[in-house]
Specification:
The chain is α/β, with parallel strands linked by helices and about 140 residues long. It is about 45% helix and about 20% strand. It contains six helices and five strands. The chain has helices spanning about 15-30, 45-50, 55-70, 85-95, 110-115, 120-125; strands at about 5-10, 35-40, 75-85, 100-105, 130-135. Strands 3-2-1-4-5 form a five-stranded parallel β-sheet, sandwiched between helices. The relative contact order is 0.23.
Length: about 140
């Protein structure tokens, strides 16, 4: 069993966050801690100027509430919202918080992933802990 599990949460339709949470629950057992993390990527300046001023604050509140709702039924779980580049931020957060397992949902790779690489692929390649990938 793992003691400190990180589950990156993407609100994309093609990600199986519920499945990743269930795997994390199993891997954590009764004593392991689970953190559900969502990374908000920075919105480019040219795009943010077209959005209402309260958009970012309202988005943060909605995401934090959703993460809290997802973590509530899990024993020893919390939701965390951070900002940054998704792959790098997940890896940095895991390193800083002594995560011993990352459970991440992936999707079937598309053309964009072949050119840029997916977040899951970056996490698998560079994590210093165990990584479980769900597809």
């Amino acid at each position: 069993m793992y003691q400190n599990i990180l589950v990156p949460i993407s609100f994309d339709e093609d990600r199986d966050s519920a499945g990743a949470i269930e795997v994390a629950r199993t891997l954590a057992g009764e004593k392991g801690h689970i953190t559900l993390i969502h990374v908000m990527e920075e919105i480019p300046g040219y795009a943010i100027s077209y959005m209402p001023p309260e958009y970012l604050a309202e988005s943060r509140q909605a995401i934090e509430a959703e993460l809290s709702d997802m973590a509530e039924p899990l024993p020893n779980a919390q939701g965390v919202l951070v900002e940054g580049h998704s792959g790098r931020t997940i890896l940095d957060w895991a390193q800083e918080h002594n995560v011993d397992c990352i459970v991440i949902a992936s999707h079937r790779p598309g053309m964009q992933d072949l050119l840029l690489g997916s977040t899951a692929a970056q996490v698998v390649r560079h994590a210093s802990c165990a990584v479980h990938v769900l597809r």
